[in-house]
Amino acid sequence: MLNADSFFDLGGNYFAPLINNTEYVWEGLKNIKPFLKENLQPNVKELRMGRNLIENDTILYRGKVISRGFEIDNSGKKPVVKMEGEILEGASIVYAGAFLMDEEIFIGENTIIEPTALVKGPAYIGSKSEVRHGAYIRGDVLIGNDCVVGHTTEIKSSVMLGGSKAGHFAYIGDSILGRVNLGAGTKLANLKMTDTKVTLKLNGKTHETGLRKFGAILGDGVETGCNSVTAPGTLLGKNVLLYPNGFARGYYQPGMLIRIRQSYDLVNLEQQ
Q1: Does the reported pTM lie above 0.90?
Q2: Cα 170 to chain centroid, rounded
């Protein structure tokens, strides 16, 4: 019930080895650093040219860095790169004003890094993903395909398995996310106020995670409303809905609805 298969469909997922053989899904957090050390193949050295700030719009295309002679068409939903009248299918764009703080970064195909986004390695960013204006990737991060790290969203020591959307003002710390959508202002708190490790109580049993920092596990299909918060060590099963301004703590079975408790009776209020 608490293994990876209970939360995610990992068929063919590049990050599956992180958690496939774990008894408890949160054990995958301990595997992020070793996974990056073994598998990361950085591809931004030539792009950075020894500088943190990307000074001109730059293209990554078929393993090459292109810094001139192309145009970016921003008229559609997503930008398109053209060169000599032809569309460069699979080209990734790193816009001027983005910060790549070191060389321990991989950027996949058809991915966009917008101005003022800041990326610290080690970090893997998959294909068809977006790192938007003002996003902060703090290192030890695995971002899969079709993901969004949105405006002023911060992520550290976490995994977005793919199809994971955090479009606006989110905090994602020491967490694993499946195909989810985080409402604006969602916070996945990762550190207890007391100086103790995170434990999880379920069916009368206490699970010692051994983790001082542990945010949340969000299964496929999870939706969080705007300004919602999860306590350290929260597990949301598949298709759980967390209402706006809601708070979640502990384990929630698949399909549950979590909403704040109303402190007043609307019917009586209208009669006053």
Answers
A1: yes
A2: 9
ω into 122 cis (within 30 of 0): yes
What b/e readout covers 32-52, taking b as 16+ CB neighbours within 10 angstroms?
A: beebbeeebebbbeebbeeee
- List, for residues 194-252, the tens digit of each pLDDT value: 999 999 988 889 999 999 999 999 999 999 999 999 999 999 999 999 999 999 999 99
The residues near 218 (Cβ < 8 Å, ≥ 6 apart) are: 7, 175, 176, 177, 178, 180, 188, 224, 236, 240
Q: Which CATH number fits domain 4-40+122-271: 2.160.10.10, 3.30.1490.20, 1.10.730.10, 3.90.190.20?
A: 2.160.10.10
The set of catalytic residues is 168
The encoded tokens of residue 102 equal 């070191």
Please state, in angstroms and rounded to a whole number, the distance separating the CA atoms of residues 107 and 43: 7
